[in-house]
Specification:
single chain; alpha/beta; seven-stranded mixed β-sheet; six-stranded parallel β-sheet; 24 strands; binds MU-OXO-diiron
Length: 401
């Protein structure tokens, strides 16, 4: 696809990556985009961010479509340096020869770290700094850790456009560029998945960014992130979703996440799940050996109650359970209710390990956990069902339903 006019003098000039399926471990079944934006104003022409290294030529083609010679670009604004956006910076600087590169102090240090070019014409900016480009103003707002320490967003008040780098983005390749042209259901699945797998650890910082936007009184008609679609119809919905997720608000839903060696923990998992269903909450069952961890994190984001099941293997957890819980712990979900269960043969430490993971994620336990030697009896399964009911009741109480 070619460059896309977003507003008079403001263009999408990025790249669509239909084929990426692994984004540093994140499974991107629907591809992604690396968005860059070009502002052509009466006095200055500005490029916001660049693209992943392999897409440099696409970026240049799109820039040429709009302004002919890339050297007409006066300024670069680098909102975020992670290589999915910053991978082309060195080649862009060479092609464009910008008069100035606006970025945060951490972005300057980061670019020097990646490209070893202290001689580039960096201009460090802070929250509240402004740049006039002719008829427009660019305001900068630092957003440290949303997504990296270098991150900031840019706002154009005359157009009410927020250029938000990773924030409000999603890995979603589409042939059209706007939210109202995409499949809304797929789009919001990808937005939740992106939040759960990329943004969730930085939820307290997201709250600060949302507060800054409010305090500065920014009117936003359009959000232009560095991944996925441009928001113009559903701005309110995406901002509200970020507010909800960053406050760790969850739905009255129970997830039973487990893996099994010889089916005993699986029998327990089904019984816990049945109990939750009988208590009248929405419940979902995930066996880790056949589940996609990236997709599963989106489920974790939205569920209030989580039951983890693992048999004991060599005094520890089954590797699939250890792997997922380690990944999940790093993403720092909070304000969940938890229950651990599992079978064992002789030592039986799995429940203890799962409870430790719950403690580390500040999850409130609804029970001390339940372990069963070898194969669960009818009574054991009845107990698992009762524990599923208990978790569901606590979830309903906590969610006020
Ligand atoms: Fe899309 Fe943090 O880079």
């Amino acid at each position: 696809m070619g460059a896309v006019k977003i507003k008079d003098g403001f263009y999408w000039v990025g790249a669509v990556d239909w084929n990426v399926r692994d984004f540093h471990g994140y499974t991107t079944h629907r591809g992604s985009t690396y968005n860059a934006y070009l502002l052509v104003d009466s006095e200055k022409t500005v490029l916001f961010d660049t693209v992943k290294a392999g897409f440099f030529e696409t970026l240049m083609t799109h820039i040429r479509e709009v302004i002919g010679d890339p050297e007409k670009i006066d300024y670069l604004v680098i909102n975020h340096i992670e290589p999915d956006h910053g991978g082309s910076i060195a080649r862009v600087v060479e092609a464009v020869k910008p008069e100035k590169i606006f970025c945060t102090r951490n972005a300057r240090l980061g670019m020097i770290g990646y490209f070893h070019r202290e001689d580039w014409p960096f201009v460090e900016v802070k929250t509240g700094d402004e740049l006039k480009t002719g008829t427009r103003t660019i305001k900068f707002i630092e957003t440290p850790m949303v997504h990296w320490p270098d991150s900031m967003v840019s706002y154009i008040p005359e157009d009410k456009i927020l250029i938000s780098q990773d924030a409000f983005g999603e890995h979603y390749a589409t042939s059209t560029r706007f939210d109202d042209e995409a499949n809304f259901c797929e789009l919001f699945q990808e937005v939740a998945k992106y939040y759960a797998n990329i943004v969730l650890p930085f939820s307290p910082q997201v709250q600060k960014v949302l507060k800054a936007i409010k305090d500065l009184g920014l009117e936003i008609e359009m959000i232009c992130p560095d991944h996925g679609v441009i928001w113009r119809r559903h701005v309110k919905e995406i901002v509200e979703a970020y507010d909800r997720w960053s406050r760790y608000e969850a739905k009255p839903r129970v997830l039973v996440i487990y893996d099994t060696m010889w089916a005993s923990t699986e029998m327990m998992a089904w019984a816990v799940y049945e109990g939750a269903v009988k208590e009248g909450v929405e419940a979902e069952l995930f066996k880790l050996s056949v589940s996609d961890e990236t997709e599963l994190m989106a489920e974790v984001l939205e569920a209030k109650g989580i039951a983890f099941g693992s048999p004991t293997l060599n005094n520890g957890l089954l590797p699939t359970v250890a792997g997922f819980t380690t990944y999940m712990k790093g993403l720092r979900p909070r304000k969940k209710l938890g229950l651990a269960f599992g079978s064992y043969g002789w030592s039986g430490e799995a429940v203890k390990h799962l409870n430790k993971i719950f403690e580390e994620t500040k999850t409130e336990l609804v029970h001390e956990g339940f372990k069963v030697k070898y194969r669960p009896t009818k009574e054991d399964l009845a107990k698992c069902e009762e524990l599923g009911r208990l978790l569901a009741r606590k979830v309903k109480e906590a969610c006020g339903v």
